[in-house]
């Protein structure tokens, strides 16, 4: 028994030393990682049309006999051949009309029709934004948007599947500005909301040309909230002084540790009201059909209610929207991934884990605030 106790103590000491070394190495690597961050990444593309074809073929191979599958393949080949033949005949007829036309205006119209007939197929680029309280996904989205804008044409479309309960004003303001880049290029922007786009999430969504939301998606929360604990009485009770020095009357208004005066609280509320006015003006600019005085109460609505209030344009899931788009367009999912160096993987693992856990906790609390009854 004494040997086992000593052996257990030895293992515990060894484990303590190993953990200490890991923490030390992680700390050194994290410091080095801060000095030189590797921001290189890569874009990955997935064609949704191919996924749907694969699903269909897999099901057909399981549901149909060999003879039935042969018949299906033969029918599809015949349909594709007839479609191709019809398109060629149409292009030929338009070209012939163009040559025979003696009127320059008619010739130009015929040429325009021929060009339209040969116009490339529409493309739909799909991006994902899963927002936490800091809108961290904006770092990836900005890269995705930059990449897509190098290829997107005005006849194409960009769809963003957006999920967010909102968060920091400046973070979501930047994320909204990234979406504005799409609008500035004249490319149609559609936002799909499957679960929630509230507060900062709706700040982003309202920029779109079209908003599609699932029937029970949570939409709205056009308001501003700020909350913080105050430990002044606890510190005072334990004879702990808190000193704060500022230059400028409103450099700091309310604090967590000092005594918050009525004047400081009034100034803080005034700042919140100003932010709320900016938020309302933002929504009114992009959704002029919305009665902003009725909806800018901080309340949220489910899909159908949001549609009745003109907060969205259409009911449906992102899956419905994209599957329908595949019928007449090439649909591509676009995502950007950062490449992580070994130093970052080792050094930032602990730090990022703690930070992500805290951010996730605050995000969950934020989303819970928008869930009704």
Write up what this structure looks like.
With 373 residues, the protein is an alpha/beta fold. It is 56% helix and 15% strand. The protein contains 13 helices and 10 strands. The protein has helices spanning 2-35, 48-63, 66-100, 104-117, 138-149, 169-184, 200-205, 232-237, 262-286, 292-295, 303-308, 318-326, 342-368, and strands at 41-47, 122-131, 157-164, 189-193, 196-198, 210-213, 218-220, 300-302, 314-315, 329-338. The strands form 2 sheets. A 7-stranded mixed beta sheet has the order 1-10-2-3-4-6-9. The protein has a 3-stranded mixed beta sheet with strand order 5-7-8. α6 (169-184) links the parallel β3 and β4. α1 packs across α13 (342-368). The protein is elongated and about 90 Å long. It starts with a helix and ends in a 5-residue tail after the last helix. The relative contact order is 0.14. The model is unreliable at 33-38 (pLDDT under 50).
Radius of gyration: 29 Å
Q: Which structural class do the helices and strands define?
A: alpha/beta
What is the 3D form? elongated
The sequence of SSEs as H and E is HEHHHEHEHEEHEEHHHEHEHEH
Q: Percent range for helical residues?
A: 55-70%
Biggest β-sheet: strands ordered side by side in the sheet: 1-10-2-3-4-6-9
| β-strand amount | 5-15%
Overall mean pLDDT score?
A: 79
Number of strands: 10
Q: Uncertain runs with pLDDT below 50, 5 residues or more?
A: 33-38
**Please, how many helices?**
13
Q: State the major sheet.
A: 7 strands, mixed
The end-to-end distance, rounded to whole angstroms, is: 59 Å
């Amino acid at each position: 028994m004494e040997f086992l106790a000593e052996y257990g103590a030895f293992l515990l000491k060894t484990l303590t030393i190993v953990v200490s070394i890991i923490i030390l190495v992680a700390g050194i690597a994290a410091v080095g990682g801060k000095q030189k961050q590797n921001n290189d990444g890569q874009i990955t593309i997935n064609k949704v049309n191919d996924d749907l074809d694969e699903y269909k073929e897999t099901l057909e191979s399981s549901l149909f006999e060999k003879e039935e599958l042969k018949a299906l393949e033969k029918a599809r080949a015949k349909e594709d051949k007839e479609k191709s033949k019809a398109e060629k005949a149409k292009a030929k007829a338009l070209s012939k009309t163009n040559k025979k036309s003696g009127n320059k205006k008619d010739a130009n119209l015929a040429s325009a029709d021929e060009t339209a007939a040969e116009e490339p197929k529409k493309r739909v680029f799909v991006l994902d934004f899963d927002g936490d309280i800091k809108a961290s996904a904006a770092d990836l989205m900005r890269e995705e948007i930059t990449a897509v804008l190098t290829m997107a044409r005005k006849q194409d479309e960009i769809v963003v599947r957006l999920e967010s309960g909102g968060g920091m004003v400046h973070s979501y303001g930047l994320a909204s500005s990234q979406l504005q880049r799409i609008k500035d290029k004249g490319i149609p922007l559609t936002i799909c909301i499957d679960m929630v786009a509230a507060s900062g999430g709706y700040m982003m969504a309202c920029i779109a040309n079209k908003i599609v939301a699932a029937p029970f998606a949570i939409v709205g929360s056009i308001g501003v909230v700020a909350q913080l604990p105050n430990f002044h009485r606890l510190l005072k009770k334990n004879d702990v002084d808190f000193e704060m020095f500022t230059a400028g009357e409103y450099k700091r208004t309310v604090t967590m540790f000092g005594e918050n005066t009525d004047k400081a609280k009034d100034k803080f509320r005034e700042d919140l009201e100003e932010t709320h006015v900016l938020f309302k003006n933002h929504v009114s600019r992009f959704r002029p059909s919305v009665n902003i005085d009725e909806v800018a109460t901080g309340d949220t609505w489910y899909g159908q209610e949001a549609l009745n209030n003109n907060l969205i344009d259409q009911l449906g899931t992102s899956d419905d929207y994209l599957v329908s788009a595949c019928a007449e367009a090439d649909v591509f999912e676009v995502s950007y991934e950062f490449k992580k160096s070994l130093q970052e993987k080792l050094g930032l693992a602990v730090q990022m884990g703690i930070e992500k856990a805290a951010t996730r906790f605050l995000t969950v609390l934020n989303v819970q605030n928008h869930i009704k009854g």
